[in-house]
Specification:
Elements (H helix, E strand, L loop, with lengths): L1 H7 L5 E13 L2 E4 L2 E4 L2 E14 L4 E15 L6 E21 L2 E20 L2 E4 L2 E16 L4 E7 L2 E12 L6 E12 L9 E8 L1
Length: about 210
Protein backbone atom coordinates (compact mmCIF):
# COMPACT_ATOMS: atom_id res chain seq x y z
CA UNK A 1 0.00 0.00 0.00
CA UNK A 2 2.88 2.38 0.82
CA UNK A 3 4.60 1.62 -2.50
CA UNK A 4 1.35 2.15 -4.41
CA UNK A 5 0.66 5.48 -2.71
CA UNK A 6 4.18 6.81 -3.29
CA UNK A 7 4.09 5.71 -6.92
CA UNK A 8 0.73 7.42 -7.45
CA UNK A 9 2.05 10.81 -6.29
CA UNK A 10 5.21 10.57 -8.37
CA UNK A 11 4.76 10.96 -12.12
CA UNK A 12 8.45 10.19 -12.71
CA UNK A 13 8.43 6.82 -10.96
CA UNK A 14 10.35 4.10 -12.80
CA UNK A 15 10.48 0.52 -11.61
CA UNK A 16 13.70 -1.48 -11.46
CA UNK A 17 14.54 -5.09 -10.65
CA UNK A 18 17.60 -7.19 -10.03
CA UNK A 19 18.83 -10.02 -7.88
CA UNK A 20 20.89 -13.16 -7.72
CA UNK A 21 20.28 -16.84 -8.42
CA UNK A 22 22.91 -19.42 -7.55
CA UNK A 23 23.13 -23.23 -7.49
CA UNK A 24 26.25 -25.15 -6.41
CA UNK A 25 26.77 -28.91 -6.42
CA UNK A 26 29.82 -30.97 -5.57
CA UNK A 27 30.37 -34.71 -5.73
CA UNK A 28 33.41 -36.94 -5.18
CA UNK A 29 34.50 -40.57 -4.95
CA UNK A 30 37.56 -42.71 -4.21
CA UNK A 31 38.67 -45.53 -6.50
CA UNK A 32 40.90 -48.40 -5.34
CA UNK A 33 41.68 -50.67 -8.27
CA UNK A 34 38.29 -51.62 -9.65
CA UNK A 35 36.34 -50.62 -6.52
CA UNK A 36 34.81 -47.16 -6.12
CA UNK A 37 33.55 -45.55 -2.89
CA UNK A 38 31.26 -42.55 -2.76
CA UNK A 39 32.50 -39.56 -0.76
CA UNK A 40 30.47 -36.62 0.66
CA UNK A 41 28.32 -34.53 -1.66
CA UNK A 42 26.79 -31.09 -1.19
CA UNK A 43 24.08 -29.00 -2.81
CA UNK A 44 23.24 -25.35 -2.17
CA UNK A 45 20.67 -22.97 -3.64
CA UNK A 46 20.20 -19.23 -3.16
CA UNK A 47 17.65 -16.79 -4.56
CA UNK A 48 17.84 -13.05 -3.80
CA UNK A 49 15.39 -10.96 -5.84
CA UNK A 50 15.23 -7.16 -5.56
CA UNK A 51 12.38 -4.89 -6.67
CA UNK A 52 12.03 -1.14 -6.36
CA UNK A 53 11.28 2.14 -8.11
CA UNK A 54 12.77 5.57 -8.58
CA UNK A 55 10.69 8.42 -7.22
CA UNK A 56 12.98 10.82 -9.08
CA UNK A 57 16.17 10.65 -11.11
CA UNK A 58 18.28 10.42 -7.94
CA UNK A 59 16.10 8.75 -5.27
CA UNK A 60 14.92 5.15 -5.29
CA UNK A 61 13.23 2.79 -2.83
CA UNK A 62 12.77 -0.94 -2.84
CA UNK A 63 12.84 -4.26 -1.02
CA UNK A 64 15.19 -7.25 -1.07
CA UNK A 65 14.33 -10.88 -0.24
CA UNK A 66 16.79 -13.72 0.34
CA UNK A 67 16.06 -17.46 0.40
CA UNK A 68 18.75 -20.10 0.63
CA UNK A 69 19.10 -23.83 1.30
CA UNK A 70 22.09 -26.16 1.59
CA UNK A 71 22.46 -29.91 2.09
CA UNK A 72 25.52 -32.02 2.88
CA UNK A 73 25.44 -35.82 2.70
CA UNK A 74 28.37 -38.05 3.75
CA UNK A 75 26.80 -41.00 1.84
CA UNK A 76 28.02 -43.64 4.29
CA UNK A 77 26.23 -46.93 5.10
CA UNK A 78 24.19 -44.97 7.66
CA UNK A 79 24.35 -41.59 5.96
CA UNK A 80 24.40 -38.34 7.90
CA UNK A 81 22.64 -35.50 6.13
CA UNK A 82 22.86 -31.88 7.30
CA UNK A 83 20.24 -29.48 5.91
CA UNK A 84 19.96 -25.74 6.58
CA UNK A 85 17.50 -23.08 5.45
CA UNK A 86 18.14 -19.32 5.46
CA UNK A 87 15.87 -16.36 4.81
CA UNK A 88 16.02 -12.58 4.91
CA UNK A 89 13.87 -9.55 4.13
CA UNK A 90 14.47 -5.80 4.18
CA UNK A 91 13.58 -2.43 2.58
CA UNK A 92 16.22 -0.02 1.28
CA UNK A 93 16.74 3.48 -0.09
CA UNK A 94 19.33 4.48 -2.68
CA UNK A 95 20.48 7.95 -3.67
CA UNK A 96 22.63 8.97 -6.63
CA UNK A 97 25.40 11.14 -5.19
CA UNK A 98 27.31 11.84 -8.40
CA UNK A 99 26.66 11.18 -12.08
CA UNK A 100 29.05 11.71 -14.98
CA UNK A 101 27.97 10.37 -18.34
CA UNK A 102 27.26 6.65 -18.00
CA UNK A 103 28.99 6.39 -14.60
CA UNK A 104 27.24 7.04 -11.27
CA UNK A 105 28.09 6.76 -7.58
CA UNK A 106 25.20 5.79 -5.29
CA UNK A 107 24.74 5.35 -1.56
CA UNK A 108 22.35 2.59 -0.51
CA UNK A 109 21.06 2.17 3.02
CA UNK A 110 18.61 -0.30 4.46
CA UNK A 111 17.54 -2.50 7.31
CA UNK A 112 16.48 -6.08 7.41
CA UNK A 113 15.63 -9.16 9.43
CA UNK A 114 17.08 -12.59 8.78
CA UNK A 115 17.02 -16.09 10.21
CA UNK A 116 18.03 -19.69 9.69
CA UNK A 117 17.12 -23.21 10.79
CA UNK A 118 18.81 -26.58 10.41
CA UNK A 119 18.40 -30.28 11.04
CA UNK A 120 20.58 -33.38 11.13
CA UNK A 121 19.47 -36.77 9.81
CA UNK A 122 21.43 -39.88 10.85
CA UNK A 123 19.98 -43.01 9.29
CA UNK A 124 16.30 -42.87 10.30
CA UNK A 125 16.81 -40.41 13.20
CA UNK A 126 16.20 -36.66 12.73
CA UNK A 127 17.48 -34.05 15.20
CA UNK A 128 16.87 -30.32 15.18
CA UNK A 129 20.01 -28.24 14.67
CA UNK A 130 20.91 -24.65 15.55
CA UNK A 131 18.57 -21.81 14.56
CA UNK A 132 19.24 -18.08 14.40
CA UNK A 133 17.42 -14.78 14.13
CA UNK A 134 18.69 -11.23 13.81
CA UNK A 135 18.43 -7.80 12.24
CA UNK A 136 20.88 -5.40 10.71
CA UNK A 137 21.20 -1.81 9.52
CA UNK A 138 23.78 -0.84 6.95
CA UNK A 139 24.97 1.70 4.39
CA UNK A 140 27.22 0.96 1.43
CA UNK A 141 28.42 2.74 -1.73
CA UNK A 142 27.64 1.47 -5.23
CA UNK A 143 29.35 2.17 -8.54
CA UNK A 144 26.97 2.02 -11.50
CA UNK A 145 27.58 1.97 -15.25
CA UNK A 146 24.69 2.29 -17.75
CA UNK A 147 25.05 -0.29 -20.50
CA UNK A 148 21.80 0.86 -22.12
CA UNK A 149 18.95 3.17 -21.20
CA UNK A 150 17.33 0.37 -19.16
CA UNK A 151 20.23 -1.88 -18.08
CA UNK A 152 22.94 -0.89 -15.59
CA UNK A 153 25.93 -2.75 -14.20
CA UNK A 154 26.54 -2.22 -10.45
CA UNK A 155 29.54 -3.01 -8.26
CA UNK A 156 29.60 -2.94 -4.44
CA UNK A 157 32.57 -3.54 -2.13
CA UNK A 158 33.64 -3.46 1.52
CA UNK A 159 36.02 -0.63 0.63
CA UNK A 160 33.74 1.65 2.66
CA UNK A 161 31.24 0.32 5.18
CA UNK A 162 28.94 1.23 8.01
CA UNK A 163 26.63 -1.16 9.77
CA UNK A 164 24.99 -2.51 12.92
CA UNK A 165 24.08 -6.16 13.41
CA UNK A 166 22.43 -8.23 16.15
CA UNK A 167 22.16 -12.01 15.82
CA UNK A 168 20.93 -14.68 18.26
CA UNK A 169 21.62 -18.40 17.78
CA UNK A 170 19.74 -21.13 19.68
CA UNK A 171 20.86 -24.74 20.14
CA UNK A 172 18.82 -27.51 21.76
CA UNK A 173 15.41 -27.23 23.40
CA UNK A 174 13.78 -27.02 26.82
CA UNK A 175 16.01 -26.73 29.88
CA UNK A 176 19.09 -27.75 27.87
CA UNK A 177 18.64 -24.97 25.29
CA UNK A 178 21.64 -22.71 24.81
CA UNK A 179 21.40 -19.19 23.44
CA UNK A 180 24.24 -17.13 21.99
CA UNK A 181 23.75 -13.45 21.08
CA UNK A 182 26.27 -11.41 19.10
CA UNK A 183 26.14 -7.65 18.52
CA UNK A 184 28.50 -5.92 16.11
CA UNK A 185 28.99 -2.38 14.92
CA UNK A 186 31.55 -1.12 12.44
CA UNK A 187 32.49 1.54 9.98
CA UNK A 188 35.59 2.50 8.05
CA UNK A 189 37.42 3.02 4.79
CA UNK A 190 40.05 0.48 3.76
CA UNK A 191 41.94 1.41 0.61
CA UNK A 192 44.77 -1.06 1.41
CA UNK A 193 42.43 -4.02 1.22
CA UNK A 194 40.67 -2.91 -1.98
CA UNK A 195 41.64 -5.85 -4.17
CA UNK A 196 40.97 -8.40 -1.42
CA UNK A 197 37.70 -6.93 -0.14
CA UNK A 198 34.60 -9.04 -0.86
CA UNK A 199 32.69 -7.46 -3.72
CA UNK A 200 29.59 -8.15 -5.73
CA UNK A 201 28.76 -7.41 -9.35
CA UNK A 202 25.15 -7.31 -10.52
CA UNK A 203 22.77 -5.87 -13.08
CA UNK A 204 19.73 -3.65 -12.67
CA UNK A 205 16.85 -3.69 -15.16
CA UNK A 206 14.56 -0.64 -15.42
CA UNK A 207 11.07 -0.87 -16.86
Amino acid sequence: MIFAAMTAVSAQAQYFAGGMLGVDYSDSKNTYGTTSYNRPSSLSFELSPMLGYYLSDNLGAGVMINIGMSTENDRADNPTKDTSFEWGFGPFLRYTVLSRGDFSILMQGGMGIFGSSSKYVYGTTTNKGPSSFGFDIGVMPLLSYSLTERISLEVSSNLARFGFNVQTEKTGAGESQQKYTETSFGFGVDSYDFFRSPYQIGMIFKF
